[in-house]
Design goal:
By secondary structure, this protein is mainly beta. The protein has 4 helices and 22 strands. The chain is globular and about 50 Å long.
Amino acid sequence: MNFSFPTSLQYLLPKPDCVKQSQRQLRLPRHALLALVCLFGSTLCLACQDAPLECTVNENIVHPDGGATPIHDPSIIEENGTYYVFSSDRLGGFYSSDNLRDWKHEGNLFEQIPDWLKQAIPAADHIGSPDISYYQGQYVLFYQSHESETCNAATGLATSATLDPQNPRSLWIDHGLILRSRPFFDDIKVWCGDDQATFNAIDPHFFVDQTGKPWLLVGSTIGGIRLVELEPETLRPRPGSRYQMVAQRWLLQEDPVIEAPSIFYKDGFYYLMVSFNHCCQGENTRYQIRMGRSRNVTGPYLDKQGRRLDLGGGTLVLDGDPPWIGTGHSEVFSDGGKEWLVHHAKDANRNYQPSLNIRELRWDTDGWPSACQAL
């Protein structure tokens, strides 16, 4: 999501929990102070500009002419030997494959934009960042839509008994609104949230921790990446649950974008993936994947150098693979005893159309994943 940032300090701070909607009074609780550190702590945040990867990255296994475009913001899952990828699209497109290399467009999640979404955000014109999981005997898919160039956004939820469009039980049931972010001021449409926190209700990612608790990651640049605990039955935010900040960036830099969070668990660690920089600027696109890990699902997440992701840190995982650029919006998929990095990328020779990429992750002796061929 591309927008210009307001320069007044009051518009760069997260909205404190104690703000009264009628008075708009600003005070500085703990999470606002943390934002100040990230705004002005240049030593902490600007130091996170890692050198480019000096390695040959693992090959994208998706066939370039195998039907895997246009796929943007991919989310993947397997059912009965068939792989399914869901993509941002006007109505939420999805694709199938039996080998991860060749893909077939199967249709759309919806026949039209849901009524509740059009009523909440009349400008909503797409089903974005679909996130697919299997939970309690059914497939759950979180999605978002928003007004362009703003954080006026909403996250919704749909479920289905099966993903196979040929199965008579295939029917997506929309459960409506899960999260809503609104601008705090009519004339500042890039600073949003609700009474609980500053956040942007885009790029949802559903995750169940090792104790069985369900969580939802959401967010982007202003407000950062937030993690909120969900009610197990309704998959709506648990009343009173804190919107935990797990990653953010220093806003007063040339390209402060952070978005597209995802979490996976392996060998005692929760790994948090995020994407840095603008996703879609043609030849100038510098979209890239960053990472940190934590023993606790709520963090703090640290990168390989020990830098906190909620203070601008993040170890570089992937920053292009010529001719591919714009390698980002990732998640990790386990299959065949391996972990695979699933993301989109763009090729100038294909008019920068977003395409699905899948590449193997390898692990170093300290338990860090890498997209490089040699560790």
